[in-house]
Amino acid sequence: MKNEIDNKQILAVYERIQQRGKTTEEGKLYQGVTAFSDIDGYTVYLQGSGVLLRFGFHNTYHLDYEHDKHKDDFLKKLYNIANEE
């Protein structure tokens, strides 16, 4: 799989959601994407549009999804959040 998302963008989106998001049982929700981390904070997760992105140790990430449309919608949301003012 080619790198579709820049590691810095993942972390920037995670931080923006943590700052601007609404607290839910799962984590912070902002613009249709939920951000949360594991208990030690080494792995962060972004979830939305039927996709789960896991970003962890050594700056690697993994996308779990069933349909390419879900992935495309999710990546568009991440792009929009990353490029907000």
Q: Can you give a write-up of this model?
A:
- The protein is α+β, with helices and mostly antiparallel strands and 85 residues long.
- 34% of the residues lie in helices and 31% in strands.
- The chain is built from two helices and six strands.
- The chain has a six-stranded antiparallel sheet with strand order 1-2-3-4-5-6, covered by helices on one side.
- α1 packs across α2.
- Number of separate strands: 6
Low-confidence stretches: none
Largest sheet composition: 6 strands, antiparallel
Strand content: 25-35%
Write the element-wise H/E pattern from the N-terminal end onward: HEEEEEEH
Q: Span between N and C termini?
A: 30 Å
- The main sheet orders its strands as 1-2-3-4-5-6
Helix content: 25-40%
What is the number of domains? 1
Number of helical regions: 2
C-alpha-based Rg, rounded: 12 Å
The overall pLDDT average reads 94
What would you call the structural class? alpha+beta
Principal-axis shape:
globular
Highlighted features:
34% helix, 85 residues, single chain, 2 helices, 6-stranded antiparallel sheet, alpha+beta, globular
Topology at a glance:
Layout: H1 7-20, E1 22-23, E2 28-30, E3 33-37, E4 44-48, E5 51-56, E6 60-64, H2 68-82
Antiparallel strand pairs: 1-2, 2-3, 3-4, 4-5, 5-6
Helix pairs in contact: 1-2
Summarize the structure.
Helix content is 34%, strand content 31%. The protein has two helices and six strands; from the N terminus they run H-E-E-E-E-E-E-H.
